[in-house]
Amino acid sequence: MSKSIAFQGEPGAYSHQACVEARPDHTPLPCPTFAAAIEAVRKGDADLGMIAVENSTYGRVGDVHTLLPNSGLHIVDEAFVRVHINLLGKPGASLDQIRTAAGHVVILPQCGKFLREKGIAPVVSPDNARAAMDVANGDDMTAGALASEMAADIYGLDLLARNIEDHDRNTTRFLIMSREPDFKRRGNHGMVTSFVFRVRNIPAALYKAMGGFATNGVNMTKLESYMVGGQFTATQFYAEVEGHPDDRNVQLAMEELDYFTDHIKLMGVFPAAPRRHEAASD
User: Fold this and answer.
1) Known catalytic residue: 193?
2) Most buried of the four, 41, 115, 166, 246, by CB within 10 Å?
3) Domain 191-281 classified CATH 1.10.3210.10?
4) ACT domain: which residues (predicted)?
5) What's the pLDDT at 62?
């Protein structure tokens, strides 16, 4: 029985591309939302989940950070996908005809310069591949979609303009989620430990909590905050550090963090992807 990997979007989405590139031995399972993709893994309908978390141009995918801590899943890998944005149109349409271009709210700012220069109005769609599907199913020759070449092939659309992203290093990072953690691996490019935490309500708690990583030589590569429970005073942090929880310096840093927090939850331990270091030079 073949394994499957759930992703948010329709067939041809960039998340679909990430699944094909990172887990070619898994059958991609499209889901309408991130929550649905996570639920598919949690219920056992899929073995893994491919979840987009941040883009080098747009920034983080905000709603995902509120979903992951309560998902019951574990991060077991990361994947980086070079996002080439293409303007797709109905067969026979020309670039000069296009008046609107639909895409996910995350992708629209990534090619804003091109759209402004061409006088094309951006239109928000639930998903880039869904935008391609809608153009294919419609009869409007002035409507375009912002999507991948995979989407063009799947829905029979013409590529009216290739690689229209504003930045030539435009990359999206994905986390691969599983029902079970895997702490045994040691990656060729190092390991990453991810966790969420809330600091105690005392002066300089965050500053003091971070001190343990500095004094123990642990490199923190990510620290992001977001509110929880609708309270301005309840701030949760998502962090990633280089190293494995079994490493002595990571252990010492986490022990010091524990002293200044009232909640810590390990989210995952996974090998650092080669693209983590290469993405900046693509």
Assistant:
1) no
2) 41
3) no
4) 194-271
5) 66
